[in-house]
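Quick one: structure for this chain?
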Amino acid sequence: MSQHKSPILDVQDLSISVKTDAGEKSVVRNFAYHVNAQETLCIAGESGSGKSISSLAIMGLLPKTSARVSSGKAILDGTDLLQLPEQQMQHIRGNDIAMIFQEPMTSLNPVMTIGDQLREVLRFHKSMQGAAANKHALEMLEAVRLSEAKKRLDQYPHELSGGMRQRVMIAMSLLCSPKVLIADEPTTALDVTIQAQVLTLMKELQREFDTGLILITHDMGVVAEMADRVLVVNQGEMVEMGDVNSIFHAPKASYTQKLISDLPKLGSMAGIEPTPTAKVGQTTIPVLDVQDLTVRFDIAGGLLQRTIKRVHAVEKVSFQLQAGETLSLVGESGCGKSTTGRALLNLVDWQGRIYVEGEDLRISHKRNQLAARRKIQMIFQDPYASLNPRKTVGELVQEPLVIHKIGNDIEQKEKTAQLFERVGLDPIHLTRYPHEFSGGQRQRVCIARALALNPRVIVADESVSALDVTVQAQVLDLLAELQDELGLSYVFISHDMAVVEKVSHRVGVMYMGQIVEIGARDKVFENPQHAYTKSLLAAVPIPDPKKRKKRSLISGLEIPSPVHELSFKPTLLKLVEVEQNHFVAI
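Got it. Here's what it folds into:
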């Protein structure tokens, strides 16, 4: 760490208020912290604690019509950023202080190539154009270890994977060698191995560019892996600040203690065999039997829009699921786990066999799609996107009962209220809309909706990945209670290996559309057989700074593409004699 006598950035008594229908509301109160060169300060806390909005204020990016800095200073090299007019901030932002946002797809311009966006930054801040700008942009993409960097300059954001886009955002933020880099949840949406690559990369580039790093996260495992010092915040107030070892091993505040205790820890289930629920083993027929499940997607192109490529998303996947059992499917983005889940609900075209309690799903779907759908329900990753914002949560939970014509209106409303209570929500809030609930509460609404039809199987697709650690623990406990009480079977899709270890009876590891390893949870985690499983487990951050991994730079290469080129010969049809005087065209 650099031994600067004075910090690069010094935030003093920062307070922020926002406008509401009831008047101004204080959301950040007297934040005070600093960061030095080559130092990483992690700001940790749950959603709504003030982490992100305080950083937006420092960057001068608060929405001026709805939020304002009510007091405080943010001193960068002797200049108070909070007092500068927008025109001056435009030259400092991206040049002296830069920010990496949580979702790179919304931060990158979808109609500009990667190269154009990088060159735009250099043109504005460094007056660099032409070959010089292109050379520097290419060098920065290579610095962030982006594979085939030259090719990426001419590609658009949608052509890159999530990990690649985040590397582009890091490259863009470091183009002008800023003194301070703010990274707002830069790895939350990334898979565990890609997360490890990005974190390792940020550390190396931080040392190379002598940059002070402010890392905003709710993942205490990432904090333990990255931080020199930690600031814990909650509900707009500073809770505790100190070096990373004291925060993890001698936390003073009860809130900090809860954050650390609620964090799922890989290896916490070592030596403990998966405990079956009371329903497991009551029948010899599996509740779900999947045989040679295959899903492929055609990609059209060319003048005639013929199929020129084919995505092999899922290839001959087979597994069984018993009543009351949780089978977790793990792997990186693009491995086929979510597509497998969607195929189980007939949301994509598939080949193979799927049996639900011995009944062929394809036949039952043709005969009575609604009846088959009642047996399998899904909890999606983003509860806000999966709930209709124009309907009340009561209407949304009642909707499956209406569609399936179960009971009259009074009975349906009674059932809806019971479901609300069952998932820990107050029925008095049934008339509210989704936006009036927190993320954890919205996920509970989705669980209530999935339970409405008394399904046998629930597919939970990254159902807790976007939740804060304490809310995540509450939702996982709820799912376990429902499984034990109702005998539900879960196909639990996740890339969080610590969560998977906590909830699973069995684990299937997917790679390139195939299950490469499957077995009891303890066998897979304690004695992995496949090299890919070992790499997944090795990449998981350890929530203990004393056990911080000394990683060398992890390869930036992505998982091989599942897209297969189809060859077409652009020639005239050729006649081939297959029998005497009988020809076919090929």
